[in-house]
User: Fold this.
Amino acid sequence: MNGRVIAASKVDLEELVGGGIFRPDLFYRINMIPIEISPPREKVEDVPLLLACCLQVGSRRAKQPPHHHHQIDSLRLMYENADKVKDFC
Assistant:
């Protein structure tokens, strides 16, 4: 059997291996090509580009023209102010 595994974790697996919580042999096998991606909250300027891409793909799948400019701006504002909205609730 030939297969590939893509795994993601929000915890530092290397640290867990050092603490004896995660198996070192499994870590070795899944850590062949590590890719670290920063969360969107650290790259707020990328959010409109990601949303535009998602809306394009979605409109293509739905076979409808994309209409996105005002939606992207409002979603970006919501994302940037998410902590402030939580304070009001």
Remarks:
- Residues 48 and 58 are 15 Å apart (CA to CA).
